[in-house]
Amino acid sequence: MNSVAYVTVDVFTTERFAGNQLAVIPDARGLSDARMQAIATEFGYSEVTFVLPPEDPANTARVRIFTPTTEIPFAGHPNVGTAFVLGRQREIFGRGPGDRLRFEEKAGLVEVALIRESGTVTGARIVAPQALRVGPAIDATTIAACASLSPDDLSDATHAPVRISVGLPFAVAEVRDIATLSRARPNVSAFDAANARCRFAKDSFSLFLYARTGEPWQIRARMFAPLDNVIEDPATGSASAALGAYLVSLFADADAEVEIGIEQGVEMGRRSLITIGVSKRDGSVREVGVSGSCVTAMRGSIEI
């Protein structure tokens, strides 16, 4: 193999050069783990996906997800974008999956449904592969230091800062308002210190901050992961899904169907719109979906 094809897409947006960038390698057969990591580092996007044949033929594909520094078990926008690419391949080349896909990933099986408008694939909806996991709590001083804020800038009206996950863990905290959120700046030294104190797993410390917009289920968010060479992420579906699941788990009603709109990337000039759908039954969150639109940005080949 002398070269490998790639497609880049902008995810959680209907506008090219907005949303979150993703590079997809639709056929990664023959690439070693080291080469995959090198390609992801070369792109410098928050994630790159590599599509391989499934281990179980009943599934669509095996998808591996790499940040610039490491492989991760699950992420939101890589799954939405990869499904979009595979769905569009079918339209272009007359082959590929149907509208229901299943991706084998390190976090588990990810169920995907393509979204169409007038017959054309425009995005996808995925279901988080794991149940909500909560804890432990994280002190406000640690969170504030990482975001170059004061502990008084945080809000614990709904919950204290905490680590949550539906496939990939994040530290999550609410701040007082959108103006405070916009002032946040990642402090790499503080992230290093937090990573040493809060080493709950092999995952490096990542922080998802959010503020209410005034509407009950409308949220503005930012995500910082400088230890993964992602100073700020324009859209973080996995963190959004975890937050949605957590907020609905705290909601008083035992049964609920809630749709949450999360806006991210505004401060970066890459506005993203993420829709989170949460189903709650008998007091427990049963399913968390992440959906959004995509647009193709570039196509090309990588010399290897």
From TrEMBL:
The active site is at 47. One of its GO terms (molecular function) is isomerase activity. GO terms for cellular component: cytoplasm. It holds the Pfam family PhzC-PhzF. Belongs to the PhzF family. NCBIfam families: PhzF_family. This is PhzF family phenazine biosynthesis protein. The lineage of its organism: Bacteria, Pseudomonadati, Pseudomonadota, Alphaproteobacteria, Hyphomicrobiales.
